[in-house]
Amino acid sequence: MFVRDSLSGRMVAFSSKRSKRPHRPTTCPFCPGAEALTPPAMLVLPDADWRVRVFPNAFPVVSGKNGRHEVIVETPRHGEWFENYSGAQLALLFGAFQQRFAALSKARNARYVLLFKNFGDKSGASIPHEHSQILSLPFVPDAVKTEWKNRKALEVGMKRPALIEDQWFKVICPEASFFPYQVRVLAKDKNARFESLSQEQGVALLTLLQSVIRKVKAAQGAPDYTVVFHAASKGKVMRFFVDVMPRKAVWGGVELGSGVLVNFKEPDVALRDLKTA
């Protein structure tokens, strides 16, 4: 159930099931052989002897007519981190991302699809086995509307110094980073959409993210992070980008009380640190 707070204007999702999520269970439900501990899969790649597995989230933020919430188990190997995946594994993972993004986008009530990844306790990840999540919403979030309205800011971002880049993507430290060492990956094609990226481009994107995450972990001295894939809503065109947000810092009274974010690491300093990480 969604309710908009009439004072702040923020949308709130109520989900009693979320409170029942297991935290670091004794038996990992994402490992091979434990498939019975999760809902049945709707996608396994490359076959029954899976290396990527997708199933409905047993503790969803949204369900039924309000949308879908799915878990993407990225690897069968417990303790294998994203930044160490092989190119073949990245290809399978990107294929799963795109297939589920397309499927959720086509749902009757879906207005927006969000793909994201949490790693570490401070990011909100309750199970340490590497996984991502994807969900559809019956509305376009205000934050997404604001991004599209201010999409020219992405063109300004393209002019910032690069941390890394290839023929399709440029990695920068945003001018107004929310978190210390936040990194943004921008598509060089301003009309690029996540669902239309080729497999070659998708693998290149995930390979860049591997490099970024290695640097972020080394620079901040803590592993926790969140990755958010920012796709335009239906019928809109906006430069595709991905934010990697380290989660060492915790929001407190200033952030929660005023909405003003406090970042102790200026982006130019962060860029310098990350280049040497």
Tags for this entry?
277 residues, single chain, HIT family, subunit A, alpha+beta, globular, 2 domains
How would you describe the overall organization of this protein?
- The longest helix is centred in the last third of the chain and has 22 residues, at 199-220.
- A hairpin with a 6-residue loop joins strand 3 (43-45) and strand 4 (52-56).
- This protein has 277 residues and is α+β, with helices and mostly antiparallel strands.
- A ten-stranded antiparallel sheet has the order 3-4-5-7-6-11-12-10-9-8, with helices on one face. Strands 1-2 form a two-stranded antiparallel sheet.
- It is 26% helix and 21% strand.
- The termini are far apart.
- It has two domains: 22-139, HIT-like (HIT family, subunit A, 2-Layer Sandwich); 153-277, 2-Layer Sandwich (HIT family, subunit A), CATH 3.30.428.10.
- It is globular and about 50 Å long.
- It is built from six helices and twelve strands.
- The mean pLDDT is 92.
